[in-house]
Amino acid sequence: DADVTQTPRNRITKTGKRIMLECSQTKGHDRMYWYRQDPGLGLRLIYYSFDVKDINKGEISDGYSVSRQAQAKFSLSLESAIPNQTALYFCATRGTGTTGELFFGEGSRLTVL
Amino acid sequence: ELKVEQNPLFLSMQEGKNYTIYCNYSTTSDRLYWYRQDPGKSLESLFVLLSNGAVKQEGRLMASLDTKARLSTLHITAAVHDLSATYFCAVGHTSGTYKYIFGTGTRLKVLA
After folding, report:
1. How far is CA B47 from CA A70, A88, A100, B74, B100, in A?
2. Could you report the per-residue pLDDT of B32-60, keeping only the tens digit for each?
3. Which of A10, A40, B11, B54 could anchor a disulfide with B49, C-beta 3.0 to 4.6 Å?
4. Which of B31, B42, B100 sits opposite A106 (nearest CB)?
5. With an 8 Å Cβ cutoff, are A90 and B42 in contact?
């Protein structure tokens, strides 16, 4: 089983709908991140969290919200999806006292019609 | 604001050739990472460079870091088809915020 699991892996929705992408990890890491990938733009940071009480905005947080329900769970919500939020979304984790590389989930492909 | 520029964006090369991917960043950082992404897949860590002058090698790939020039390179030696993928560099903030900013990626295609 993957250490960082994202659900759903694929989702097609309509404009205006509320969508939640979920991420869970078994690595015991305290730091979790949500990134968005668009062709030619690389990965852009949406939100990151150091623990359940610490949530921070990234480069492109407008239109998104997050919830850190537990150390192992970090959810990303689109309150009212719009077509330009169509993208591949990645959750990642990082442990403390490490070399600092991120460990990524398999990605969630979201299409907003 | 930390910015990371990567070039080229796309690289098509013949098997057996050498090439270098460049990663420039705008503010001080002593943490530089390289990741590989296969089509439709997740990202996996290739190299972690934590100090000026750091050099890491794995097979046909070698990464280096020059913090004074704010530049990292990923050198490919005698490319093979299996190296076809997208390569990302990422820079970590040293302010303690542990934010990671990614470059735009270099899509590498190695032709047989």
Report:
1. 30, 23, 11, 10, 15
2. 999 999 998 999 999 999 888 899 999 99
3. B54
4. B42
5. yes
